[in-house]
Design brief:
This protein has helices spanning 5-22, 34-37, 47-57, 74-88, 99-103, 108-124, 142-159, 187-206, and strands at 27-32, 63-66, 92-96, 128-132, 163-164. It is an alpha/beta fold and 210 residues long. Helix 7 links the parallel strand 4 (128-132) and strand 5 (163-164). It comes from endosymbiont of Escarpia spicata.
Length: 210
């Protein structure tokens, strides 16, 4: 038994040394709500799963960490962000938040401030940021709706970060691509969302400006 100890110690040491490198891949941290958490969609059909497959298939080493939570607001995401940044040390942070703020009629100035603070925290942690824009139904009136939509371009412009103008472009309003609730994309819509993200994200990864 005692003769095995050196071998066991060596194996333990090798495991300790090699385990961190197994996950030593650049992380893309996704901070979002139910549109990114996969509400109502099987794991294999989610746009986030497809994104990881696309990254791997096209030779990118990035590992997607999906920290999205159904029902999340910009305030909630902001409160979770420091711990996520410390734990994952992401190369990129993709922020997909604010939709629930708008649906609940929350103060727009606060939503804008939360998103801007999330961007600033991410950049302070040496991560690059991609902001995902959102639109809401006109239930709260045209003024609120327009002001809400303008938040994303405003934050992206002030912080000089790339923007996907609207996550659900080509999906929202199309009953063949939406779940019965009219808010979340179905499996077919998930594929369109992936392309909306990819057309902005891929050039950023290819540019080597990380």
């Amino acid at each position: 038994m005692f003769r095995l100890l050196p071998s066991l110690l060596l194996c333990s040491l090798l495991l300790h040394l090699t385990t961190p490198f197994a996950n030593d891949r650049p992380v893309i941290l996704l901070l979002g709500d139910s549109l990114s958490s996969g509400y109502g969609i099987a794991l294999s059909e989610r746009w986030t799963t497809a994104l990881q497959d696309r990254l791997t298939g096209q030779g990118f080493e990035h590992r997607l960490v999906n920290a999205s939570v159904t029902g999340e607001t910009s305030r909630g995401g902001l409160s979770r962000l420091p711990e996520l940044l410390q734990r994952h040390r992401p190369r990129w942070v993709v922020i997909e938040l604010g939709g629930n703020d708008g649906l609940r009629g929350l103060e727009l100035a606060q939503t804008r401030q939360n998103l801007q603070k999330a961007v600033q925290l991410s950049r302070a942690a040496k991560a690059r940021v991609l902001l995902i824009g959102m639109k809401i139904p006109p239930n709260l009136g045209p003024v609120y709706t327009r002001r809400f939509e303008a938040i994303y371009a405003n934050v992206a412009g002030k912080e000089w970060i790339p923007l996907v103008p609207f996550l659900l472009e080509g999906v929202a309003g199309d009953s063949t691509l939406m779940q019965a609730d009219g808010i979340h994309a179905n499996a077919h819509g998930q594929a369109v969302i992936l392309e909306n993200i990819w057309q902005v994200l891929e050039p950023l990864l290819e540019s080597g400006t990380e």
